[in-house]
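Dear all,

This email documents one entry for the complex benchmark we are building for the journal club exercise. For each entry we list the sequence lines for every component of the assembly. Then comes the predicted three-dimensional structure of the complex as a token string, followed by one or two observations. Please use this as the template for your own entries, and keep the labels exactly as they appear.
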Amino acid sequence: MTKTLTLGAVAYDPKVVTIWEGFKDHFAAAGLPFDYILYSNYETQVLGHLAGHVDVAWNSPLAWIEAERLAAKAGRRASAIAMRDTDRDLTSVIVARKDSAIAALPDIRGKRVAVGAADSPQATLIPLELLAEAGLAPERDFEVIHFNIGLGKHGDHVGGERDAARALMAGEADACCILDANRLLFAREGTLPAAATQVVAETAPFDHCNFTVLDDAPAELVERFVSILLAMSFDDPAVRPLLEMEGLTQWLPGRTSGYDALNRAVDRTRFLDAFLA
Amino acid sequence: MPSSPEPGGRPVEIDLEGIGLDEGGEVLLRRALRRVPSGGEVAVKGVHPELTLHLRAWARGEGIGYRACEGGAGGTLVRTDRFESMPVERAGGSGIEGVRDHPPANWGLAGRSAQVELGGPAFDFTLIDKAELWADDAARLYARATAAQWDPATAIDWSAEIEHDEEIEDAVVQVMTYLIENETAALMVPARFIARLHPHFREVMQLLAMQAAEEARHIEVFTRRALMRRDCLGLSSTGGQASLKTLIDEPDFALASFLLSVMGEGSFLVLLDFLQRHGPDSITRAVARLAAQDEARHVAFGLAHLRRHAAEDPGLLARLSNAMHRRHAELAETAGLNRRVFEGLTVMAAGGFSPASIAQGHARVMQLQADMDHARRVSLSRLGFADADAAALSQLHTRNFM
């Protein structure tokens, strides 16, 4: 019997079914037996991966760290085999209203900062780490207002960030933390008018999702999986809608050099202690 | 304005001044990127406080390379082969010489000659063969139709006196009742085909839409005339509806067009001419005259595309003939023309109830039917039927006239 490569993904949106059904067809047409399992949250996916339910996991950056650390604890090794071009070199920004007294990071002291879901790397963990490294401890030096939309989905649902931006404009918060691309998106859609707001600080670039495998993954199938991914062309009308839905123009090899800030944030906040225990 | 690049030379430079990418800057960036080849660079500068952030986030999402600029706002964009790379194809040409024989389903709703991105949805149009539906004359007929539109409120003097007696008015109401249901069929048949037609055949689509709109207006004026002195319409007969249902149920465009436009509306043109001559009041005569103007174009288009179709498909005439026989068999056991319509036409043409007047009216209705037969035979001959075949086929036409 031909072995099937099974992928795990988190259903953060109904379109996830459309995306992976499309990829399933594409892999099948390319000769790779492929199936997928959808999880409702990344923690269950990571545990399922470690338990051998899936061969590859489409992981958020936080899920990558969860998988990497859980694997290490079990004497195993995780690696990132591929990622989107749009997963590389993101930044998050801290935005304040122009009419506020916040012009730079130190001005955050004593203020209210709206963030996304508690487990969102881009809208919570990494920007709060930026503040912490600037000497401003969350909940000690400033108040944190969480918008916990889709907890367990690691901020994949943009709703938390949008609510944080709305809270800023409504005067319920003095600053908000959002992804750089959402700064542009929210300005365009009017949620966060550029004329009324300004970027107070920006994080260093970091990386986002990756396809994660563990050391016991079926090497030949994984190799074919990656080669089919890397061969997908944005010019191909048949696969382009899938790439657009998944938010990329090109698959790239995986790299793990862009997770330092998130690792520091996780360590400082002991965010994963309970999960890894 | 960006300058054109020299191959391997300096990058295009663009100054966004104070605007960001949330304020239209993207338009200028795309314009500049289109002017460099893949791998070419566009140096962007400006004074918007978030320009660097905008550029990096935008470039990442678009699959465009980005290099920060040292010590200042902006940066350099590097065009990749993924920039605006969706493959496209031209949906035929804009003129009628650009009409394709079999336009693909994925051209969808795009106008002729548009650049269509590949990978779009395939529409379920079923009328996709030029041979089946095209007429080079369609654009001219459409232009004539748009120029000939008339406003029922002003084209007809609705205040004109109706002086004839009530029994003649009953005849008018009955004939209008019959006309309304026939025109309803003439609206629904093209309307159903419009939804199945590939929009690549724009002129045909427009003409059929105009045809449906014209029938809507005919229904309006016939209804208004019928109800001028009555609260209700007359009798709708099973025979008449059975005849019209065969038109509505015909799924084949060529056959439906033949039965409706050429045979049915062709006969109707003669009937409307009859009503212009024998209508007992100026309003009846006016609505018949105005409707006839439109119906003539409908017949002209039916003849034009069927003649073209017959020239390309030698089997078409046999199919048309079979359709006439099939419909004739289907309607053989029905009553045909509503008896009261026949009486109504006779009374209108008689203008009174003396035996001599009625005899004259009857003779005129007989002549009407002979004229209809002649008109159908002429049309059938123009489609390519031999005279004997045309004569035989005309006799098979529904006794309901449409």
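Observations: The domain at 92-202 of chain A is CATH 3.40.190.10 (D-Maltodextrin-Binding Protein; domain 2). The longest strand of chain A covers residues 78-84.
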